[in-house]
Amino acid sequence: MHHPALRFLGHSTTRLELGGRVVLTDPVLTPRVSLLRRVVPPLRPEDWADADLVLISHLHGDHLHLPSLRLLRPDTRVVVPRGAAEWVRRRGVRRVEEIDVGEEIREGGLRITAVPAAHSGHRWGPRSTRGPQSPALGHVLEADGLRIYAAGDTDLFDGMADLGSLGLDVALLPVWGWGPNLGPGHLDPERAAEALDVLRPRLAVPVHWGTLAVAGLTRAPAGHGARMRALLHDPPHRFAAATERRGSATTVTIARPGQDVPLDGTAPDPDDRTPGPIARGADGPGPVRRE
């Protein structure tokens, strides 16, 4: 008998065990991503080696990361936004298929529906017009009596309330990125808390934080270095605090990269000593419960 499970692997990468399958979202599995480096301990092969299915939300290099996809088994099913499959296939990923907003796929006992996202879908965008372009997506996964929304990268959008009407159990929401600033099409901690007003999940898990930084920037002296060190720690705590201020009924659970996330809203295992991002203050992971 399988049991649903969730592990935050860092950045936008999560491992979901659902419907008898192992799913990875936007896998970034290597120590480096272009000019970015992983500032938390490396992943273990067992975190990703048994993946059955990969969901790619959009084409940006920290979400569609080709070196990471090449680490997976050749028969792993990789699902990309509509229009990107041939471009990905030509770069050495064998089993690729496409999905667009409103379409669904099945994998074992799991049903996955593509939903909108407010974010650039261009590989090099939004500034460049070279290379492939496909719509940015979120995904709703349903199995084992659970409905989980993986937002990918997005800002607030009009149809977000429609997702809330589905009766979400879990929302995996981006709360930052990898640099000192956010470009267009992102949720910051306060806007992510605003999203909960319409999504109304039972549990929210902040992602897209605390994992990647420009090489060397975290070691820089005060100023840019101090700001970057703070941004590797603070966003999920700002998100939890903003959620509390808004009086949300959602439980926020902050997990460090590499840590399991209990789906019942309880705190992560205190004996899980997975090292977290660069420390700032004494805040630890755990749920922020709303009564």
Automatic annotation (TrEMBL):
| Region annotation (Disordered) ranges | 242-291
Domain Metallo-beta-lactamase per the UniProt entry, residue ranges: 10-186
Cross-referenced InterPro entries: Metallo-B-lactamas, RibonucZ/Hydroxyglut_hydro, UPF0173_UPF0282_UlaG_hydrolase
Pfam families cross-referenced by the UniProt entry: Lactamase_B_2
Q: List the SMART domains.
A: Lactamase_B
Q: What is this protein called?
A: MBL fold metallo-hydrolase
What is the protein's species of origin? Pseudonocardia yuanmonensis
